[in-house]
Design a protein that fits this description.
CATH topology: Helix Hairpins
Radius of gyration: 19 Å
Number of helices: 3
Distance between the termini: 26 Å
Number of strands: 3
CATH class: Mainly Alpha
Helix content: 55-70%
Largest sheet: 3 strands, antiparallel
CATH architecture: Orthogonal Bundle
Strand content: 5-15%
Length: 95
Amino acid sequence: MLALLLFVFALIYQTLGLVGPDGKTCNDFLPCMYFSVITFTTVGYGDFRPSDLARLFAALEALIGYFGLGLFIAALLQLFSRLPKDVDENDLERF
C-alpha cells in the first residue's frame, strides 16, 4: 500500500515536474520517486522542489506521511503494551 502511494505521487511529480538543484524542470522518474519518499517522510532535503502545479500534491503527501507514520507508531505502541508485564527471559523465546 505504501509503495503504491509513493509510486502514484512520483508519477504525479513526473507529470507536473520538479525543479532540480540547477533550477531546471526535471521529469525523470527516479528523482521524482526520491522526492516522493523524502516528502512522505517529511525530511525535505531541499535539493528538489515541486513546480507550482505540484505544490498542492507535495503538501498533501506530507500530511499523509505525518498521519501515516503517526498511526504506525501508535500501532507499535499498542502492540508492545499488550505484552505481559512479568515476562522471564525464557518466556521471550515464544515471541
